[in-house]
User: What shape does this take?
Amino acid sequence: MESERPLRIALASPAENAWSETFIAAHIDRLNKVELLLSGGVPPRNASQDGPLVHTTGLASYADRFIGKWSGGLPGLACRRLARRLTKFHPDVVLAEYGNMGAEIVHACAKAGVPLVAHFHGFDAHRTDYIARYDNYRELFRYASALVVVSRAMEAQLLTIGAPREKVIYNCYGIDVQRFVPGRPDLAPPHFLAVGRFAEKKAPHLTIQAFSKVAAQRPQARLTMVGQGPLWAGCQQLVKELGLQGSVDLCGVKKPDEIVGLLHASRAFVQHSVVTASNDHEGTPLAVLEAMATGVPVVATRHAGIADVVEHGVRGLLCEEHDVDGMAANMIRLVDDPEQAQRMGTAGRAYTERAHRVEVQVANLQRILEGAACRA
Assistant: This one.
C-alpha cells in the first residue's frame, strides 16, 4: 500500500440503507476512505460500484434466481460475484460490520486476496445460534486480520470461543459531543427517558414494571419510551393493565434532534438490558453514550458494555438484570435528589468527552484498518 494515498476501504453492512445505523454511518462518513460500499443483506447483494451483486428486481432478477437455483442459491451467487468485484477493485482492506457478515464474506475476501477486519457489535458475538451456524467463527478467526469489539464482555466472549488474543481489539463507539450538548437534569422535571428498539434484550417491559413502582410512590414522575419493535404492542397493553396511561408515553420513533430535546427535558435515561434465552447481549448501547454526552445520568443494569461506561454512583446507578425493585429504587433516588442527577450527568459528560469522542474512536478504527492492510 502506498503511504501517500488514502486507504481504499470496502465496507460491508447488512442494512439496505447502510446509513440507518448511527455507528455504521459514522464509519462510512469519517473513515478515510470508503470507496466501495456493500449492503443489502448478509452476504451483501448491492454494491456502490458497477451495479448490484445480485439483482432482486426486474428481468435480471429472474436470471439470477435461475443461476442461483443451480449453483447453491442466491447467497452463494452473491459471494462469488463479491469475490470478482473485490478482485476488480482490489481495496486495501474490507471492513465487515457484524461478525456474521464477516463469516459470510470471508471466502470471497480470501479468494480476492484482500485483508478483512470484522467489527462485532452485540448479538453476533453472543447468540448461540449464530455461533453454531458459523462453527465458532472458526474460518473468520483464522483469516481476519483484526476482530473489533465494543465491550469487555464481548472481548471475553470471543476469546472463549476461540479468537486469537492478538487479533481481538477493544474499540467502543464514539459520540459527536458537539451535537449532544449537555443540559441540566437538575432543572428538568422528574421525567425518565428510554430510547431503543422494543426487543427482548432491552426488556422494555421490565423498565415499565420498575417505573410502576416509582409512580406509586412518586406520582409526579413520568416515563417516555422512544422506539418501536416486536414488544411494543405488549408494552402498550402492560401500560394499560398497570393504569399508567397518564404517566407513560410510548411515543414511537423520533428523529435524532427530537431525542436530544427529550434528553434535555429528562432527569435520567433508563434501560433495563438483559441476556436473553438465546444468549443475546447488547454491545455498548449507543443511546447510553448519547445520554451521557447530553449530561443525563443513566439508570440501567450491569449488562455487557453498560457496565464498562456507567460507573455506579458516579455516572449513573446500576442494578442487576431482572432486579425491578432495584431499578425502581435507583429511579426514586434521582426523583428525590436532582443535585445528584446533575453531578452524575456532569461526570458522564466529562467521561464521554474524554473517552468516547467519535473522531477519536473512528481514528482508532482507521489505524486498525491500516495495520491490517500493511500486514497483507
About this structure: The chain has a mean pLDDT of 93. The two ends are 9 Å apart (CA to CA). The CA atoms of residues 61 and 305 lie 42 Å apart. The chain has two domains: 9-174+357-375, 191-355.
